[in-house]
Structures are given as structure tokens and as C-alpha cells.
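Whiteboard transcription, Tuesday session. T.W. wrote the C-alpha cells on the left side:
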């Protein structure tokens, strides 16, 4: 059996999906920008390395506080086909389809919340999804619950093996491919026998000199362009994809 493991943000698409979903929600519920006031001190503390990424992630999703779960699910069902699927890197999507044709088991392994990660995996017809698990109640609380912690870095490996125990004996196998943009995914990239880097940083290239590199066109220029896009998205100011017939 072959396996193809894909990160999501900046790997399958050129954006942070959390920020992109925030933009999508704020376009429809502008008053939810007030929730970002709760996140602001945590975002600053994260930049200063005073709080964990998981804690900052929980605080960021305060803009969803009080939203009924059925409304959230309806938004996710709109968001994925309208904002995610059209923005996927065609070159990386072609690799995914190539692996599918070759009979590989396709796995999305992402730090993004399961709120929408599973919907994305389903839209891509992937076989499995490993994400940051969220267990919302009837309404989203102020602190988004992460019962299994943040699925990031080394945490991606045991989470993946719990879901797919047959992968345990495949570490380093030439039958396993992994795609990522981030040094945080070195555990995932090193798990596979074939690592593919998407727009990697210079430091990631340096520690994986033999890895294949993909540089698909991006809708912004470099790190500064990415940061500006994120800022626009978390404020609900980023342009959305035009819808057919509008």
C-alpha cells in the first residue's frame, strides 16, 4: 500500500485556512469582529512566546462564540466549495490526483480545526483526516475546546497512527510521500520516505537538501504579502471569490 500525507495550510492552498474561514464568517456576521478583541492580547503574547500556539488558537476562535453548531456547519458547507476548493494549488492538487491514480491512501494531516478540516478532506475525496479535534456543544463557547490538544509538529505522528495503525511499520518507506511547507512538519516529512516541500523557507531547505521542491504561483509576494493577506482575512476585509451568476 502506498500513502500520501498532505499538510493543508500553505501546502494544498496558499493561505492559513483559519484566517480564510474567519474572513468568510465576518463577511456574513460583521459584528463578530468584536470577538477579535478577546484574541488580541493572546496574539501578542504568542508573538512574544508567552503562551502556546494551542492557547492562542483557542482565543482566536472567540469570534465564533455563541454561534449555534448547526449555523456553523451550514457556513462550513458554503465555505469549502466557495473559498477553499477554487484556491487550491493546481500543481499540488495534480500530485494528489496522481497518487490517487496510483492507488495510494490519501491522508490530510493538519493543525487546522476539525470544524472544517474534515469537510475539506471529504471535498478532496481523501481517505482519512487527522486534524485538531474540536468538540463544540450546541453553541460555540468562548474557549474552543481542544480535547486532544493541538495537532501540530510531533503531535501529528501519534494522532495519525491512532487513526491508521497500519502506518506504524511504514516509517521511512519509499511507499510513503509527505507534502508540507513548514519546518513544524519535520516529523511528518521525516516519517515519509519521500518528502516534497511547497514554498519552503531557506531553513527548511537547508535541513532537507534532498527533498523535492514545488513552487506553484501564489496570489501574493513572499512572507510580507502572506502576512498582509492574513491581516485582511482576520479583519474580514479580504476579497472573496466571485460566485457564478453574481
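and on the right, the sequence the group agreed on:
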Amino acid at each position: 500500500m502506498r500513502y500520501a500525507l498532505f499538510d493543508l495550510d500553505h501546502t494544498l492552498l496558499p493561505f492559513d485556512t483559519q484566517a480564510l474561514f474567519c474572513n468568510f464568517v465576518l463577511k456574513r456576521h460583521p459584528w463578530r469582529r468584536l470577538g477579535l478583541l478577546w484574541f488580541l492580547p493572546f496574539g501578542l503574547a504568542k508573538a512574544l512566546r508567552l503562551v502556546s500556539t494551542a492557547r492562542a488558537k483557542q482565543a482566536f476562535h472567540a469570534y465564533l462564540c455563541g454561534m449555534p453548531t448547526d449555523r456553523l456547519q451550514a457556513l462550513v458547507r458554503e465555505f469549502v466549495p466557495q473559498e477553499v476548493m477554487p484556491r487550491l494549488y493546481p500543481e499540488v492538487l495534480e500530485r494528489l490526483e496522481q497518487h490517487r491514480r496510483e492507488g495510494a491512501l490519501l491522508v490530510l494531516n493538519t493543525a487546522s480545526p476539525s470544524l472544517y478540516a474534515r469537510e475539506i478532506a471529504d471535498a478532496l475525496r481523501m481517505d482519512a483526516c487527522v486534524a485538531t479535534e474540536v468538540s463544540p456543544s450546541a453553541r460555540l463557547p468562548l474557549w474552543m475546546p481542544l480535547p486532544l490538544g493541538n495537532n501540530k509538529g510531533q503531535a501529528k505522528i501519534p494522532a495519525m497512527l491512532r487513526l491508521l495503525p497500519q502506518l506504524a511499520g511504514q516509517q521511512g518507506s519509499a511507499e510513503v510521500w509527505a507534502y508540507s511547507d513548514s519546518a513544524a512538519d519535520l516529523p511528518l516529512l521525516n516519517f515519509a520516505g519521500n518528502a516534497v516541500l511547497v514554498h519552503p523557507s531557506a531553513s527548511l531547505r537547508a535541513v532537507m537538501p534532498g527533498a523535492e521542491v514545488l513552487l506553484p504561483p501564489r496570489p501574493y509576494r513572499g512572507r510580507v504579502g502572506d502576512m498582509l493577506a492574513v491581516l485582511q482575512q482576520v479583519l474580514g476585509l479580504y476579497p472573496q471569490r466571485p460566485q457564478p451568476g453574481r
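Someone added at the bottom: The first strand starts at residue 3 and ends at 6.
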